């Protein structure tokens, strides 16, 4: 069985990093755990080291300044030597036994399992056992699965955390785009798929994503949206099959519309409503995106106020449906 390097990019994750590190070290297939402390101002690095199990597999590196998750992951890939690479977010954790069902599959370059979304950050979540039914993910389905739909809860395919073969990354000189602070995973996986990566998904659930109000992924800047939109544009500059180009054009528009709305709201917050309207009139093509976005946000706020309160500890859901393992 090939050994796995688990890469954890962390910024100000002192309250969660220990659970993440312990969940990775618990897995027998893991030969390396590399934590990159990405310019934290708290005790992230020290807490990560305290979670060591003494096996010699943990390596904690600290950046003097924040460089972003893409740069942190690229640095860890360069340092590591294992033939397989897995990404773990610093506020998430692995379910015990995560890798066995994936490593039993054949003929893949990337392989991902189901994700359980939970508010329980203790690492004690026990997800529903699903059969490890496998299917191949195409570039077209990947793009379409990353276009958010109104009223649909968070859980796009881009949130999958695949195990990756180092040999494929090296053969295609594939690394994360360090200019991106939002959607760097989406961009990375899409470029891999367009280079012919065999991406397998199984329904078995081995990854727990902790839903947090203060998650860094929810704190993106307007500039981050612009860069992601431009990354789509750069990919579309190459020759693509028509159906993939059409899907990517829809994703690009989806991101650009979000950018236009944020740019309008930024101008309104900084210079007032009249300045924001002048800004919008100077870019008439952005008017539908802004009007639709404002209306959508208002409707969303009304619906949220109308929803009954539910205990957060009960919140648990899966990214993908699955067939439960039959009871014996």
Poorly predicted tracts of residues: none
What percentage of the residues does DSSP assign to strands (E)? Answer: 15-25%
Order of helices and strands: EHEHEHEEHEEHEHHEHHHHE
The multimeric state of the shown protein is: single chain
Largest sheet: 10 strands, mixed
Given the helix and strand composition, which structural class is it?
A: alpha/beta
Helix content: 25-40%
Task: Walk me through the structure.
This protein has 328 residues and is α/β, with parallel strands linked by helices. It folds into two domains: 4-215, Spore Coat Polysaccharide Biosynthesis Protein SpsA, Chain A (Alpha-Beta Complex); 222-306, no CATH class. Helices cover 39% and strands 18% of the residues. It is built from eleven helices and ten strands. It has helices spanning 17-25, 44-50, 69-79, 99-103, 139-144, 166-171, 184-194, 222-236, 242-271, 273-281, 287-306; strands at 4-10, 30-38, 58-63, 84-87, 93-94, 110-118, 134-137, 163-165, 199-210, 316-318. Strands 1, 2, 3, 4, 5, 6, 7, 8, 9 and 10 form a ten-stranded mixed beta sheet that branches. Strand 1, helix 1 and strand 2 (30-38) form a beta-alpha-beta unit. Helix 9 crosses helix 11. It is globular. The mean pLDDT is 90.
């Amino acid at each position: 069985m090939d050994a796995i390097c688990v890469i954890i990019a962390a910024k100000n994750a002192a309250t969660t990093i220990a659970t993440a590190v312990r969940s990775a070290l618990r897995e027998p297939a893991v030969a390396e755990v590399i934590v990159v402390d990405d310019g934290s101002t708290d005790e992230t690095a020290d807490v990560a080291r305290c979670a060591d199990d003494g096996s010699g597999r943990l390596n904690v590196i600290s950046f003097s300044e924040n460089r972003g998750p893409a740069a942190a992951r690229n640095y860890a890939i360069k340092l590591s030597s294992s033939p397989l690479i897995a990404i773990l977010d610093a506020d998430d954790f692995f379910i015990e036994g995560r890798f066995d069902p994936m490593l039993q599959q054949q003929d893949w370059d990337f392989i991902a399992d189901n994700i359980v979304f939970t508010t329980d950050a203790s690492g004690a979540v026990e997800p529903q056992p699903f059969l490890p039914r496998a299917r191949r993910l195409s570039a077209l389905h990947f793009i379409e699965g990353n276009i958010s739909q109104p009223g649909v809860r968070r859980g796009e395919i881009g949130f999958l955390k695949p195990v990756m073969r180092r040999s494929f990354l090296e053969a295609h000189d594939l690394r994360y785009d360090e200019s991106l602070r939002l959607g760097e995973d989406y961009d990375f996986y899409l470029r891999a798929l367009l280079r012919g990566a065999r991406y397998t998904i199984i329904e078995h659930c081995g990854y727990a994503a902790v839903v947090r109000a203060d998650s860094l992924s929810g704190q993106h800047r307007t500039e981050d949206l612009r860069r992601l939109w431009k990354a789509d544009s750069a990919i579309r500059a190459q020759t693509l099959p028509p159906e993939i180009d059409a899907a990517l054009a829809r994703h690009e528009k989806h991101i650009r519309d979000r950018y236009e709305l944020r740019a309008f709201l930024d101008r309104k917050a900084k210079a007032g409503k009249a300045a924001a309207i002048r800004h919008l009139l100077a870019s008439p093509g952005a008017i539908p995106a802004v009007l639709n976005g404002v209306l959508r946000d208002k409707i969303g706020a009304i619906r949220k106020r109308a929803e009954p309160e539910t205990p957060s500890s009960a919140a648990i859901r899966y990214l993908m449906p699955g067939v439960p393992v039959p009871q014996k």
